[in-house]
Structures are given as structure tokens and as C-alpha cells.
Specification:
Blueprint: E1 20-25, H1 31-42, E2 54-59, E3 65-67, E4 71-73, E5 87-91, H2 102-113, E6 117-121, H3 125-130, E7 138-139, H4 146-152, E8 157-158, E9 164-166, E10 170-173, H5 178-191, H6 193-203, H7 224-239, H8 247-254, H9 258-269, H10 273-291, H11 296-302, H12 308-319, H13 323-330
Parallel strand pairs: 1-2, 1-5, 5-6, 6-10, 7-8
Antiparallel strand pairs: 3-4, 9-10
Helix pairs in contact: 1-5, 5-6, 8-9, 10-11, 10-13
């Protein structure tokens, strides 16, 4: 591994069952959402080795296709590309009231039946819902579409407060930039935290954002001096994982009442201090499992858990794998 901070380390990722990612293109394409998919899955990343994703764009209707911003789109092919895809992404949609072509819903259902994963960004959830595959499953979309989505698809368990939801074979993300969070989550799921961290670094964004859409709903902007108070505290929590500071002590350090501190902390992170700390501990544990050979007890201690049993409990609840299984799947030595 190089020590030059300006060069990303070569990871040589292990293969996954199907690394073909196909993004849908349609007339009126949401340029930003499509750009997220192309950036995360379609950009050449030689540091990842030969097993990185293979990317293509599939037009769902005859051209010419227009995209927001006065652009024209030429796709790699049509919906026949979905037959070989391991992951199909719907980057937004024409609108909440725009019908989804039956041919597209049939193609998506067929892809799902043979094992392909389906993902949506923002209003793309309307397309996945139209297939019926989201019925009685949890899903999310942009908070501004929540009412229209629930009205059109009452059988879907809509959760507009979160950034993304992973239902295994079907994944949905909230508004626009939350697609980056979902993309990094998929990378983390396929190739591990180190690969996701590498991509996040190139995107100049955190590998995981705590909280949910609640922090982005219209609300008064926090005063600058309050934000300045909280930034050092947030970083302190993230870097001192073996400590469990009380809300009272944190509020005192910020010079705020406990009630005001909790409100400002939620505005800044979308969650509570204890949940923020728990997520930071799990992220650190995943990194240690991938990059080292320390025992599970040592990883638990270094990441702030009082015991290996507690680490196993929270780790499985968060990632669906035990720490040992995570290490076997994602460790550099295994790769």
C-alpha cells in the first residue's frame, strides 16, 4: 500500500456473482440522479482491480432522449440489457403522476425473478412500486413525494424519514444526493468498507452519513455560533469511541441546556448522540475487521464495545452478518 496521500491504494477486490450495473434512461432523464449512478458505478477505478463494476445505460423508449439541462442522451442499448444485469438502477423518474410503461415493469419483474437487484434514487421509487415488488416492503423516496407515493401505493411501507432502505434484493433511496449514500452502501455490501471509503474519498464525502431525511426538512438554519460549538463535540465523539459521554456532559461542553443541545445535535446529524456513537463504533469495528487480524474481543474493545457479545449483537443487527463472517467476506487477506 502506498503512503502517498494523493494516490489511492490498490485494493484488488474479490469477484462478486454479477458485477454488471445497468442504469435506466428515459425521456426527461433526471440528470443529477443519473450522474450519481454513472459516477459511482461507471467511472473507471483502476485502483479497484479487474473485478469492479461493469456499467451500461439502457434506454426504456426510442430516442432521441432528452435530459434535464438541455442535454441529449444516447444509451448503450435498450431494455434487452436488463437480462444480463446484476444491479438495475432507476435514477429518478419523469414525475409522480407519470405512468410507468407495462413493458418496463415486466422487464424489471423478470430481472428480479432471476436474482437481479433493483435500486431507485429519489422518484425512481415510483417505478419500482409500479412493479408490485415493493408491496408489503419498506421503501423510501424524496420527502416531497411522500404524500403522493403513499396515495398511489398504499401497500408499500413508506419510510420518508430515512436516507435509504436495503430490503436485500430491492433498495430505495431518498431525494437526490441520498443516491450517493445508497451507492456507497451497495459498494460496502459488495466489496467492504475499505472500498466504500476509497470511493467516498474520491467523491469528497463521508462514507456514511448518520441520520435521515428528517435533518433536511424545511427548518430554521442553526445559528453559526451554535454550529461552531457542536463541530468539535461531534468529532470528539467520533474519535473517542471507548468513551460514553452523558448528554449532560456534552451539553455542558457546548454551553447549552440539555434540551437545546439535543435539538441542535439532531439538526446537525439527524440523530441522537447515543445513536451517533453506536453507528461510529460499528463503522470502526467493520474497518478493523477488514484491515487487521486482531481477535473479536480486541476489535470490540478498540471500537468501544464493552464485550465481544455486545459487538456481535449490534453488528448483526446493523449489517446482517456476524463480525467473523464480515471478516471472512471482506478482509484484505481473504481477498
Amino acid at each position: 500500500m502506498t503512503t502517498n496521500e494523493n494516490i489511492l491504494p490498490f485494493l484488488d477486490l474479490p469477484p462478486i456473482p454479477n458485477n454488471r450495473v445497468v442504469a435506466l434512461a428515459y425521456d426527461g432523464l433526471c440528470t443529477f440522479e443519473f450522474g450519481i449512478v454513472a459516477e459511482i458505478f461507471g467511472l473507471s477505478r483502476p485502483e479497484m482491480g479487474p473485478n469492479w463494476y461493469r456499467f451500461a445505460t439502457a434506454a426504456i423508449e426510442p430516442g432521441p432522449l432528452r435530459a434535464q439541462g438541455g442535454l441529449s442522451v444516447t444509451a448503450n442499448g435498450g431494455t434487452e440489457l436488463l437480462a444480463d444485469a446484476g444491479l438495475i438502477v432507476v435514477p429518478g423518474w419523469k414525475g409522480a403522476e407519470s405512468p410507468v410503461p407495462p413493458e418496463l415493469t415486466q422487464a424489471l419483474r423478470a430481472a428480479h425473478a432471476r436474482g437481479a437487484r433493483l435500486a431507485s434514487i429519489c422518484s425512481g421509487a415510483f417505478v419500482l412500486a409500479a412493479t408490485g415488488l415493493l408491496d408489503h416492503r419498506a421503501a423510501t423516496t424524496h420527502w416531497r413525494y411522500a404524500e403522493a407515493f403513499s396515495r398511489r401505493h398504499p401497500n408499500v411501507d413508506l419510510r420518508p424519514e430515512v436516507l435509504y432502505i436495503d430490503e436485500g434484493q430491492i433498495l430505495t433511496s431518498a431525494g437526490s444526493a441520498a443516491g450517493m449514500d445508497l451507492g456507497l452502501h451497495i459498494i460496502r455490501r459488495d466489496f467492504g468498507a475499505e472500498a466504500a471509503n476509497s470511493v467516498a474519498r474520491r467523491l469528497v464525502m463521508p462514507a456514511h452519513r448518520e441520520g435521515g431525511q428528517a435533518q433536511f426538512l424545511p427548518r430554521p438554519v442553526p445559528r453559526n455560533h451554535e454550529a461552531a460549538r457542536l463541530s468539535p463535540l461531534i468529532e470528539s465523539i467520533r474519535t473517542n469511541l471507548t468513551e460514553t459521554p452523558s448528554v449532560k456532559s456534552l451539553a455542558t461542553r457546548a454551553g447549552l441546556s440539555e434540551r437545546t443541545f439535543l435539538r441542535r445535535f439532531n439538526e446537525a446529524t439527524g440523530t441522537t448522540p447515543i445513536r451517533f456513537l453506536a453507528e461510529a463504533r460499528l463503522t470502526r469495528a467493520a474497518e478493523l475487521l477488514e484491515s487487521g487480524t486482531d481477535s473479536i474481543d480486541a476489535v470490540a474493545e478498540a471500537s468501544g464495545f464493552s464485550s465481544a457479545a455486545l459487538l456481535r449483537h449490534h453488528f448483526h443487527a446493523r449489517y446482517g452478518l456476524s463480525p467473523s463472517a464480515w471478516r471472512r467476506r471482506f478482509s484484505r487477506s481473504s481477498a
